[in-house]
Amino acid sequence: MKKTAHGTLFAVPLPDGTFLSGRVMMDIYACLKRRLLPADSPLPGLGKAHLVEIYSLVSHTPTYTPSPKLIRGAFVESDELGESWKIIGHLPVNPNDVEFPETIIGYVHPQGDGKFENGEIGVKLPLPDDSANRIGEFKKRHSAVRWHYTCLRAMGRGEEVPKGYEGATLAGSDLRYSPDKASVYQHLPFPIEMSYYEKQKMMGFDLDRLYATQYAGDFLRSSVRERGPGTRSRRNRGMAII
After folding, report:
1. In what order do the strands lie in the sheet with 112-118?
2. Phi/psi of residue 168, each to 5°?
3. Which of 88, 104, 153, 162 is the most buried if burial means most Cβ atoms within 10 Å?
């Protein structure tokens, strides 16, 4: 069985010599290689990106200490994992805690223009023409080598980001941080406060199948254990579009 990076804990070095810790919530490429993602899923298009979450505690050493989430799910290139992002442990992923970015793509259909995408969920939106471009929250695979600058902006320390790195930001890649979020959710079949796990279950998906067995790579130096749900893959469903 191929290994996945699900649950890998890592440290992101900041320019001042301190660190933020993060965790791989989904190894998308490994799921694709294990044939867990259907052909019409929007996730394989992200290639070897990881879905990661970042924690708020700043430390002077590359260590993991539980703290509130700073970034609740973003797609980031995997290049730096195990390189400049030191591996600091492993914490199995509870599927109930997984959150994906929320984005809008241009999608012309009889009812309007635009489609909401969130993980494997896709919902057609009855929006006027060119609404996707106006809202401007497109799916993005963030650069790993610039990710520390994105984290600084998320921490409210944008003044520390050098000129020339304006693209190192969550803005424009996630509806959750957009003033248009409430207006878009008026057209969606689930409430704005519902978790991704609840939404995907309501839409007929099976997120648990991606975490039925979590393998930590041989490069992990330590292990942090967390009791997760004992689940088995039930069915590999395609992307639902309504």
Report:
1. 102-109, 112-118, 121-124
2. -85, 80
3. 104
Contacts of 43 (CB under 8 A, 6+ apart): 28, 31, 32, 37, 119, 120
- The letter for the amino acid at 176 is R
For residue 128, give the nearest of 104, 116, 107, 112 by alpha carbon: 112
Cα(22)–Cα(52) distance, rounded to whole angstroms?
Answer: 7
Give the Cα separation of 43 and 22 in Å (integer).
21
Element (H, E) at 31: helix 28-33
Beta carbons within 8 Å of 116's beta carbon, 6+ residues apart? 102, 103, 104, 122, 123, 125, 175, 184, 187, 188
pTM for this structure? 0.85
pLDDT digits (tens, 9 = 90+) for 54-104: 999 999 999 999 999 999 999 999 999 999 999 999 999 999 999 999 999
Return d(Cα 200, Cα 121) in angstroms, integer.
Answer: 7
In the three-class reduction of DSSP (H, G, I as helix; E, B as strand; rest coil), residue 52 is classed as strand
